[in-house]
Design brief:
This protein is an all-beta fold. Helices cover 0% and strands 49% of the residues. Strand 5 and strand 6 form a beta hairpin. The termini are far apart.
Length: 127
């Protein structure tokens, strides 16, 4: 089993920044083969893809709505993935989830490829 724990959410004004963290652990966690993703779900909306990264090479993929504002990165030594969010907008308000894909498909935004999910962290951007 793989355990994912997010942190770093909170309340921020529009134009501000936040950094989310996702710490991964577990006996079956094989970081080399996996892809890690961030998704978000706003009230009344479906969960949507935000960004993904491959553990091995650090390849990244972003949703068009966040490209240029958000940066996903990983620290292999700490088994931790980050999401740096800059120039935040009220429409970025959502619960943000970290997820792990054993198949390593960092280039595919489908949430159905992801095998493990964190509990989520709330991000609220005020106008």
């Amino acid at each position: 089993q793989v355990l994912l724990v997010e942190s770093g959410g909170g309340l921020v004004q529009a134009g501000g920044s936040l950094r989310l963290s996702c710490a991964a652990s577990g006996r079956t966690f094989n970081s080399y083969a996996m892809a890690m993703g961030w998704f978000r779900q706003a009230p009344g909306k479906e969960r949507e893809f935000v960004a993904a990264i491959s553990w091995s090479r650090g390849n990244t993929y972003y949703a068009s709505s966040v490209k240029g504002r958000f940066t996903i990165s990983r620290d292999n030594a700490k088994n931790t993935v980050y999401l740096q969010m800059n120039s935040l907008k009220p429409e970025d308000t959502a619960v943000y989830y970290c997820a792990a894909d054993r198949g390593g498909s960092w280039y595919d935004p489908s949430q159905y490829l992801y095998d493990y999910w964190g509990q989520g962290t709330q991000v609220t951007v005020s106008s």
